Amino acid sequence: MDLRFTEEQLMMRDMVRSFANDKIAPFVEEMEKGVFPRDILAQMGELGLMGITVPEQYGGAGMDFTSYIIAINELSRVSAVVGVILSVHTSVGTNPILYFGTEAQKQKYVPKLASGEYLGAFCLTEPSAGSDAASLKTRAIKDGDEYVINGSKVFITNGGEADVYIVFASTNPEAGAKGISAFIVEKGTEGFVVGKDEHKMGLHGSRTVQLTFEQMRIPAENLLGEEGEGFKIAMANLDVGRIGIAAQSLGIAEAALGYAVDYAKERVQFGKPIAAQQGVGFKLADMATAVEASRLLIFRAANLRAQGLPCGQEASMAKLFASKTAVDVSIDAVQVFGGYGYTKDYPVERLFRDAKVTEIYEGTSEIQRLVISKNLTK
Ligand code: CAA
């Protein structure tokens, strides 16, 4: 595998890096207070970042998948909040329509999602259906040329802010996973109720809400794919989405490593910089090695995806390893900073809080192991 980025990919990296440093970094403190980065997303729309892999015919930038992963990675080095918003918007908010929608659905929704006029979200998880996603209870019943949807969803990233939601509901409860269908739901539909905002440990600027559907009627033409295809649509898009979350994790880990190295070079104890003391120097070496290994797993998975090859196993491995690295490296960075690392005066405590959820959402680490082990033994 050629590990060098193309000219186009390097341009994407440099452009997103500058944008993140110039426009996002000054807004990180506001996001920490819980402010959703609407204005930043609008600017990202203008730069073509809200539809990086969307073909030009649907209003996107028509770039390759690796460029998209580079963008998530670069954004997340500065703000894991912006990283997850874009990852969810693209891989599980826009792509299900792009890959499983009818031409009419694509024409209606994808250009607006790709330009950033619309934000996307994904509604699979329910109060009693998290890792066991196929046990969801939300029900969709066909009534003439409409579906009536009732149920509750939890932990919906971009919820309340998004304009378009990919909603999973059962059209045939007896059929289990094969009875689940996917629907395109617009915010503002009668019966679409935005509930409690979750007060999270980290990612404060990313909105996470509960949603309730109360006798919510949507046109039958908003069914995505065929009835009963919903679970496969969810899984196929999560396969790819997990590479995005792995890239977000990598961004967090790289940021934590960078801060730790800079601090360790400056902080003098026992007459020399702590980086020159083996206890800290070896820690930095382990952190850097894990970051590099994450990068290789992620860009290997991205490369497969970019070629249109199966990548589910590699995506799960990348997410499993990179999310653990984000947590480990950010904890180690706090340790390198000592007492200062435990305060809000330095960014490493935020990175640690932001890192933890990467081991939980888009499939917990345990689910990634399940996917990998099933693949090994099938
Ligand atoms: N691609 C396509 N189809 C797939 C698939 C995949 N990756 N994985 C499974 N399927 C198909 C299977 O082939 C099967 O169909 P057939 O019988 O026709 O072969 C059907 O789906 C059911 O498969 P399983 O029996 O394997 O399903 P399961 O009930 O055992 O569940 C699971 C598998 C991997 C555990 C799955 O439930 C899962 O991924 N759980 C985690 C859920 C998750 O990731 N949630 C994330 C929420 S979104 C989010 O977090 C976004 C955010 O906020 C950041």
TrEMBL record:
Q: Where is the Acyl-CoA oxidase/dehydrogenase middle domain?
A: 121-215
Q: Tell me the organism's taxonomic lineage.
A: Bacteria, Bacillati, Bacillota, Bacilli, Bacillales
In terms of superkingdom, the source organism counts as Bacteria
Is the keyword Lipoprotein assigned to this protein? Answer: no
Gene Ontology MF terms in the entry: acyl-CoA dehydrogenase activity; flavin adenine dinucleotide binding
The Swiss-Prot or TrEMBL record lists the needed cofactor(s) as: FAD
- Which reactions is this enzyme annotated as catalysing? a 2,3-saturated acyl-CoA + A = a 2,3-dehydroacyl-CoA + AH2
Q: Which organism is it from?
A: Caryophanon latum
Q: Which residues form the Acyl-CoA dehydrogenase/oxidase C-terminal domain?
A: 228-376
Pfam families linked to this entry: Acyl-CoA_dh_1, Acyl-CoA_dh_M, Acyl-CoA_dh_N
Extract the CDD domains matched here.
Answer: SCAD_SBCAD (cd01158)
Going by the UniProt record, its keywords in alphabetical order are: FAD, Flavoprotein, Oxidoreductase
Query: Any keyword Flavoprotein?
Result: yes
**Any idea what this protein is called?**
Acyl-CoA dehydrogenase
